[in-house]
Model the fold of this input.
Amino acid sequence: MTDCIFCKIINNEIPSDKVYEDEQVLVFKDIAPKAPVHLLMIPKKHIHSLAEVTAEDSELMGYMMTKVPEVAKDAGLEGFRTIINTGKDGGQIVFHIHIHILGGGGPLPF
Ligand code: AMP
Ligand code: ZN
Done:
């Protein structure tokens, strides 16, 4: 999607601090971290939000769930919090579905 900031990150049109990438997903550091470790996992497929996920996406969504603990472990996290904000009322600001992965000590937001 041309005017999507996270699609631009996927396409290297704007920089990001990437920590993991494969054919289906990208993980990068949140630009305004709310915890010592604050990562965002996004699918390379543009999906607006969790509210727009369909049965067609179930394999991709399942794949992301298996990657989250791998990425968290590689980031040195023993425990972590995952958040998916959905829709304006759910606190979503960037409309390309993403999973927040937060941890590393200190109080967690929300
Ligand atoms: P949400 O409120 O769930 O839509 O969260 C969007 C998140 O994306 C926020 O935590 C922002 O700090 C983060 N963010 C926005 N732009 C960038 C960017 N260019 N690089 C990394 N993180 C970003
Ligand atoms: Zn996008």
About this structure: The longest strand covers residues 37-43. Residues 1, 4, 6-7, 46, 96 surround zinc ion (ligand 2) (CB under 6 Å). Residues 58-74 form the longest helix (17 residues). The helical segments are 5-10, 58-74.
